[in-house]
Amino acid sequence: MISKKWEILHKDPKDIKTIKDITNILLKNRGIKTEKQKMEFFEPIDPMKISLKSLGISESEVKKAIGRIKKAKKNDEHVIVYGDYDADGITGTATMWETLHALGIFVLPHIPERFSEGYGLNLESVARLKKEDPKLKLIITVDHGITAGKKVDEVGKMGIDMIISDHHQQGKEKTKPLALIYTTQIGGSALAWFFAREVLKKVGPFAEGSDLIKEKLQLAAIGTVADQLPLVGPNRSIVKYGLEELKNTKRPGLLALFDEAGLTGSDPVKRVGTYEVGFMIAPRINSMGRLKHGLESLRLLCTKDKFKAMEIAGNIGRTNFDRQKMVDQIMATTLSEMKIESKGFTNEIIIIAGESYHEGVIGLAAAKLVEEFYRPAIVLSIKEGVAKASARSISGFNIIEAIRKFEDLYIEGGGHPMAAGFSIKTENIPEFSRRLNKLAKGTLTEELLQRRLKIDLELDFEKINPELVEWVKKFEPSGLGNPSPVFVSKDVEIISVKAVGRDAKHLKLKLRQNEHIFDSIFFGGGEMYSKLSTKAKLDVVYRLEENVWNGLVSLQLQIRDIKVDLH
């Protein structure tokens, strides 16, 4: 376990006298200061009431798009919803396809196959779709298309109009479809939801508050969490209201997926939150696009057949297990092959390559290496003399900027400061690795390589009570941009400690500060067991949570980190 540098955001514990003080500090730490911001944070706007203008979506472009959809319906033209193969694209495609289908339009979904079609608009695929269906006159993209550029013109030459809905950064070359539904404020699935909301208002016999579109908020919530978007503003609204729909879902596919993921039981899906979506549901949806075909995940979301749903969910579960095994294999190879000196790593950046590495999981493997060792990592999948690479970084080291300094060595690539992808001739990998690590040597300081744990404030056990927990719960849904509140308590005694779970990986502790006692759980803390005894005093970092066991609810500390004082 790599040690973490604790960073307490609010320094003075004397400021903390009441629950209101605690709440205001938590809000301030998240950049929420004005009364209006506080009100919108605790009472997010219903997405049904969020205007297109406030999202930066062009109303005139939406009007053009709706006019074209009306024309398709009137003339019995065929439509393709062309989505992306990740969870954000698949959930958005489900929303758009179901909406148009409900309006009586002849519409089919298309999810590209990662390895043969690649990301985004594939002209060969469009030509094939047109050949198979001469009545195809309109393509609507979901979660891609903003960088399609001249491909849009080529599609037009085939007699097909395009409506692009996307949220990614625009490139230098402007894309000019028939209509552009665009904003960077929300994700692809959320954008599809708002577009579908407007379509239902103008086309067909649906009321503005129709349950048909409200129910689809659950899909937008899954996509938003999966795409790791900041859960503030409209994203917070989408996820908060979408999770409520998700907890009451009637979709056979999602219910089957919950069951396969072990989220059902005596209280089915009631506790599904951002963690369950981000770490259990979205990875399963993503796994098909990574290893097989994302269309299978779309079928799961849209099926109305309970038995078909169970069959697909089982297939997705097995594929997700294969994905995990592939990532674990790369991790095991790394651990066995990585040369580690007594003082640390031989290289600043972890760079590993293998012919057995599946290109669908190299990004996940790179992310896991960063999580494990807290330093930038690049994983390359070698195939026939060319390798595809996926890179992940840490805060303070711009990985794409570093990679671009060696354009003479790689074929093509792109990305952003924290993640990038590129392709490179296998013969160039050693030189690329040498030069990149030489560059990183002067940039990756010990300070940058120190993992940080941000803590909201110091809290005494006497201030922890059910009322505080209720206020902390109001900060949900939490995620990027709005982390779960984290506290630290000092000079805490251990009453009891025991290792639990498979291979004793976790710890259960009973902790006391003065006369106040709390149960706690430390996931992944098993390796600290030998350092802990009832004689030790601790500084402990934790989240507050409710633990439900046999129908009884108790207050529990979920430990994030511990510092031990044996003196």
Automatic annotation (TrEMBL):
Which terms in the Gene Ontology molecular function aspect does this entry carry? 5'-3' exonuclease activity; nucleic acid binding
Determine the domain of life of the protein's source: Bacteria
SUPFAM superfamilies for the chain: DHH phosphoesterases (SSF64182)
What region holds the DDH domain?
Answer: 79-224
Q: Using the record's annotation, list all stretches that form the RecJ OB domain.
A: 455-561
In the UniProt record, does the keyword Nuclease occur? yes
Q: Which UniProt keywords apply?
A: Exonuclease, Hydrolase, Nuclease
Signal peptide positions are none
Report the InterPro entries cross-referenced here. DDH_dom (IPR001667), DHH_sf (IPR038763), DHHA1_dom (IPR003156), RecJ (IPR004610), RecJ_OB (IPR041122), SSDNA_exonuclease_RecJ (IPR051673)
Q: Which Pfam families does the UniProt entry name for this protein?
A: DHH, DHHA1, RecJ_OB
Domain called DHHA1: residue spans: 351-441
| GO terms of biological process kind | DNA recombination; DNA repair
Give the protein family: Belongs to the RecJ family.
Query: What name does UniProt use for this protein?
Result: Single-stranded-DNA-specific exonuclease RecJ
